Amino acid sequence: MTATGPALEFSTTLSSSPVTPERRAEILAAPGFGTSFTDHMITAAWTPEAGWHDAGLRPYGPLSLDPATAVLHYAQSVFEGLKAYRHDDGSIWAFRPEANAARFQRSAARMALPELPVEAFVDSIDLLVGTDSEWVPTGGEASLYLRPFMFASEVFLGVRPAKHVTYSLIASPAGAYFASGVKPISIWLSSEYTRAAPGGTGAAKCAGNYAASLIAQQEAIANGCDQVCFLDALERKWVEELGGMNLYFVSADGSITTPQLTGTILEGITRDAILTLAGDLDYKVEERPVSIDEWRDGVASGEITEVFACGTAAVITPLGRLAWTGGELVMGEETGPVTREIRAALLDIQYGRAQDRRGWMHRIV
Ligand SMILES: *Cc1c(COP(=O)(O)O)cnc(C)c1O
Known about the structure:
The protein is of the alpha+beta class.
């Protein structure tokens, strides 16, 4: 169900104390990830009676929350993640923001939150990034990371969907994920924990999924790995995804496979774009179940030549090692050629160096 209706009007209140150009230049020289924020933010309110209202751009700053605000207790909250890219000519673009808007609606519906119209979602991005355009970094793989989110803001301790909901959008300059070149990461296969069960919230980008994955991520770190990989909850046999990235397997015969969406895997927009791009590059693309035995045996026999993870933040990340209780498998010290080719093809579109044949790029400035 897609919410329609009159366009949401956004008011504008500019900051009277924006970050100085000197300080901003310092931040943009080494932005890191998720620690600095632009001068403004978007907020909008929803109630069953008024629908979406009170939408506006305002100075970035703390939200004041009553201790009984519902989200703090029952985690009725969803979010998105996408980036604004500066092209060589100075223009600024987002990658498939309508796809994020649609997923935001699906996530909201799963968590009994109201759907924000796609147009309002995209308008909020245009307004915030247009206002804070000086914050979009130049060069390399830097970008302005955009974080739309929605939460139950009703002050109420009962258990039911909130009747007051807040939408917000903040923006944070992000440096290249791999500051010193792309390096394969190591993965811990969790046998203790699962991320999502049938009928659960695995396909929704909800805050609680991340809270539930942190202990498994901690286990990965304790075992000398960078990230955790989850298997399905029923059989503990089928490969699902990492904590925040989808997976792809490259075969010696030139085919590329990703676990099919079963309701317990997050529908990544990067994953979806790669399905199309890999097809354009003449790879045979498959979505089907992949078992952990197929992964382990395939790497051992040489049938699987590369494995990579994908998501907005890190784009495409090669996997170099898979470890589990009592064993490990080395996949490669270097980024494989297919991973490199697909990574470059995607980044070339996002940074305007290749033709955007599918209208994926949305111009903001
Ligand atoms: C956001 C997310 C992804 C990646 O999605 P993109 O749209 O490609 O950024 C993958 N898995 C999980 C669990 C996620 O939350």
